[in-house]
Protein 1
Amino acid sequence: MSARARALTGVIVMAALLVLYFVFAGMRAVALLSSGTPVAVIMGVALLVLPLIGAWALVREVLFGWRSTQLVDRLDADGRFPDDLGDTGPTGKPNRDNADSVFPRYREEAEASPGDWRAWMRLGLVYDACGDRKRARGAIRQAIRLERDGIGGEIAH
């Protein structure tokens, strides 16, 4: 099973579990709200609000994954995917030492072309290969934002 298929399966399972949770939490919330006691009503409201927050977070992550996958596919189709990260290990991840060694190039490229979504996407991929997930997500979010807003000039090579 491919990585995409596994990811899609995971999203479907999580969404199904969230829907199941909504059903059971909703039934319990209605019972608590109808009891009329202040503590039960507060708990009932919490049972309605917390799943909504979870649904929002799930939708946000699914959209992030979908948009970032689209941009990775575009980079790959254009032959602009970072190809100097070296061979991947058994986990499918690039070698971290190789990623660390090429990182300055991609950082400089993004700094030199702050409006180019391609530069930010590549920087995000290299951050991820270096093991810095927080900065990787930030750079990829910036790439998504720039591409969505129609900004994304070409990089001078």
Protein 2
Amino acid sequence: MEYEGKIYRPWPEANSLLIQTTIGCSHNKCTFCDMFREKKFRARKLDDIFKDIEEAAKLYPHAVEFFLIDGNVMVMKTDFIVSILTKIKELFPDTRKISLYSQYNDFRRKSIEDLKLIKAAGLTMAYVGLESGDAQLLNDVKKAMTPEQAIEGAAKAKEAGIKVLASIIFGLGGKERSMEHAIETTKLLNILQPEELAPMALAIQPETELEAQVNNGEFIQATPLQILEEEKYLLENMNFETFYWGDHGNNIVSLKGKFPDRKEQFLVHVNHAINTHPVVTEKVLHTFSW
């Protein structure tokens, strides 16, 4: 099987077989991200992807979970995506799950009919980077998406029956917009209602635009206490059912489970950290690069 460049997959996909479908990210301008900086976005040739799937069937014939990489695979034409999904289902008849990266704008730009075709071909879930619900912050980090566009894209995904795991980043608003970030993100999530949610604490990635902003004093990082207070606000004010993947390695408190079933338990852990965790006395949260 062929892989080009650095490879990324979400932590819930640790057991999935990775099929490289695109190279890089079609947007690739977010100030906080360096995942695909060295790659120019393009689709792989369909024949090459099929060869990888055929090779995978020989190497891992009992695989049942798959994740399509790189970047926002959903940006590709519908027939391209459907062909790949169909090939996987053909060679792995016991497939339980096929996921990929997307953006809410990728959903928004497709018709409901196209999204339903993708769902019918075997797509189980799309991982979508929301990052924040704060319109100013989305503009500041060059996400090229508005809350209104996210709402439109999410509605299309729901109508097509495609499950969404949305990711958000605690601390993305820095010290100055911490609560605006928490409030507006929670407000938007209550509208979007993703089936799963993955929050993670901000990590300043080397050689990104955000790192330069930190170094020149333009961006002042949120304190660990602010990050915990963002998570507390989120947990106190979310009003929909979801699966909470709050166990990313950079998070101060590791939380995982159904929400709101475990809401009170989650809040006990967050409040305990706010009151007793030694990290709350520090100025910044020391995290690991992705």
Protein 3
Amino acid sequence: MKKCVIIGGGVIGLCTAYYLQKEGHEVMIIDQSSMDAGASYVNAGYISPSHIVPLSAPGVIKKGIAWMLDPASPFYVKPRLNSDFLRWAWAFNKSCTKAHVNASMQVIRDISVFSHELYQNITKEKGFDFHFEKKGLLMLCKTEKMLEEEIHVAEMAGKVDLEASVLDKKQLKNLEPHVEVDAIGATFYSCDAHSTPHEFMSNMKRYLLANGVEISSNEEVLDIEIRNKKITEVKSAKRTIKGDEFVLAAGSWTHLVAKKLGKNLLLQAGKGYRININRETGIKYPAILAEAKVAVTPMHGFTRFAGTMEINEINNDINPVRVEAIAKAATSYYPDVSVQKEEMQHASSGLRPLSPDGLPYIGRTEKCSNLVIATGHAMMGWTMATGTGIMVAEIISGSKPSIDLTPFSPDRKF
């Protein structure tokens, strides 16, 4: 049994703790936040094997430049003369190739399908009662051009054994009889599932506490002691914490903590927003509004609209222009649904940790022999959380990894 200290209490940190304690390790989690907000709580709740195309894909740079001129666009990058950002941007640009997409699809598919199975296993475990449904995911399209693009992606998904189909307007109406859908068609991924994030997070924290895991919120790591390439302790304002193994899963803050180890981890924060509608919308199926890049999720007791990718400095500021863009997209695709001003005023944001190539960092680093890094999942953190957690536990326990970790190496070159 090892004493394992996890830095970061988001969904990746909690899932890692879950599998480590099942392996019989002594586990503690420390997080600088209150652990009740952020990306792990405001995401779309998708467990989406269908999302096989990484963020760094051909055409993204061109679209991004055009979108930068539109304050309400779904994708925005704030240019800045910051060495961390410039290195990340250069690596991102190098990754935007067809060859990279082709090489990444199977990798993304495998960890996502694996995670989906693990989520299903957790739903059957005593003490868990969170909302989880496997109903599939719609990619709603208003234009022929977008539908053609989504059909192409669906065909790519089929090549890695993911079930996808194409629906016309009539078939859409049959799926969603209780709400008007303004779309000419859609692709549909029956392999996908969805959940209500705060329920899972609450369930998981309750389970961990009941099974001996120490959770400490509002505790920031200020310093890390290293001897002979091995972490001996971490220091917070409250105390000094010793351990045998350390896991760095601090989301968009991970690269800042990694600097204390002398590790330059290429990572940027991508802000997303969500609006909750706590009334009946008639929407029964999760959907992505393809042209607007907005996710729609019928959660437990409410409907969530989430979107935008705003790559900027780390902050929790709410941009009302982007919130309004999400609200307008909702009504554009669902004319029966009108987002009220008060609902927009209660919008929240979260920061997704973005690696340059769209693949997460999962594994050990040459900098420290007793450190495992787990971050950089971009929009797929919720999807890949359980798979990431069990693989970190396998690394620490010395077990054979369920999935080849090579593509996820924190030391990979860009």
